[in-house]
Amino acid sequence: MPTFRYKAYNPAGSSVAGSIEADSERQAMQQLKGKGLLAREVVEEGGAKDTAKSFSFRRGVSASDLSLFTRRLATLVASAVPLFEAMGSLCDQEENGPLRQALVRVKERIAEGASLSRALAAEPSIFGESYVSMVAAGEAGGALDAVLERLADFLEEQEQVRSKVTSALAYPILMLLVGGGVMIFLLTVVIPKIVVIFEDSKAALPLLTIMLIKISHFLRGWWWIPLGLIIASIPLYRKAMLRDNLRFKRDALLLKLPVAGGMLQGLILSRFARVLGLLLSSGVPIMRALEITGEVLVNRVYRSYLREVMEEVAQGGSLSASLKKSPLFPPLLVHLAGVGEKGGNLEQMLVKAGVAYEREFGTRLQRLMGLMEPLLVLAMGVAVGTVVLAVLLPIFEMNQLIK
């Protein structure tokens, strides 16, 4: 009989851990429930590792491919097609790649008697913990097709947000690259040829021209220093981010940035509310849903506070009262959560809050990009104009001396 390691909450709200023997993960959770424990994590020893480090619904394949697979599977399940047959049909439709290879292995596990959730859990590089937990809840509640439809909708909506951000950043990044390239060309190619004229004249040069000449000499003779610093900073940054305290400080700093910090907070709140509402509506217990949502939020500041929220909820506190204690969660979200708790439709209110924050983020992003485009053009004009002015000033002075 397999042995499962578990983490759970006892009736007093304290976290406990141990191991239990059961025929399946579901039976292990039922045994824990019979002992008065609220299961937080159940993992088979020697089996597939839990995917606590997976912070998204999908990894390894594009969200569009995974959402298409999920919607197709929902259609087949709703049509009462057996899982093994449905998975075989989906394998045939997929092109050769990571997703098809994973689906072939999933089909083999289902043929051996594994449930869909356990078969998917063995592919953590494709199906994250959130995805697997919702599928497991759908299987337990007999509403697998509805849960899969919600998952497909969520994946498509998240891909739309990601595409919106990518499209918005494409123009500024292109402008910076073009502007930087133009400046480097002027300083390393154009300026040195013009400087020869000034050096031969031996006239006193304006301060702006002297600074430009020094920058030009530095870039031509010591260009490898800034390039080396840029290249070395990448592995140093990655190594530094392996330390939790530095990642926490970085995430806290990002939230305090002007303009960008507020937009980032809105995006985090949208993801928090949407994911938590989606998990709850799929039948995932609130403690498990909060834990998974904490992994979805990559910001360490929010993760840290969600642990405190979980402890208070485990001890009998309400979600809205716990969220209200932190300035990280605005009054609108707290109010909607409170209304949902009183009305018994918490998951619906959370989804509404997530949609509201997502729309707000989209509006602010559009306004910011509309303002940034002329500012970038103006900045490029100022930079090029400064170079031109530094070249023309000594020429004007030389003309005055000739006259």
- Tally of DSSP β-strands: 3
The assigned CATH architecture of the domain at 63-153 is: Up-down Bundle
Q: Outline the biggest β-sheet.
A: 3 strands, antiparallel
Instruction: Provide the succession of SSEs.
Output: EEHEHHHHHHHHHHHHHHH
What is the CATH top level name of the domain at 63-153? Mainly Alpha
The Cα radius of gyration reads 29 Å
CATH superfamily of the domain at 63-153: Type II secretion system (T2SS), domain F
CATH fold-level name of the domain at 63-153: Receptor-associated Protein
- The termini sit apart by 102 Å
Provide mean pLDDT, rounded: 83
Structure notes:
- The termini are far apart.
- Among the domains are: 3-44; 63-153, Type II secretion system (T2SS), domain F (Receptor-associated Protein), CATH 1.20.81.30.
- Helix content is 74%, strand content 5%.
- The model is unreliable at 47-59 (pLDDT under 50).
- It has 16 helices and three strands.
- The protein is elongated.
- Strands 2-1-3 form a three-stranded antiparallel β-sheet.
- α6 (129-141) packs antiparallel against α7 (144-201), α8 (207-221) packs across α16 (346-402) and α11 (260-281) runs antiparallel to α16.
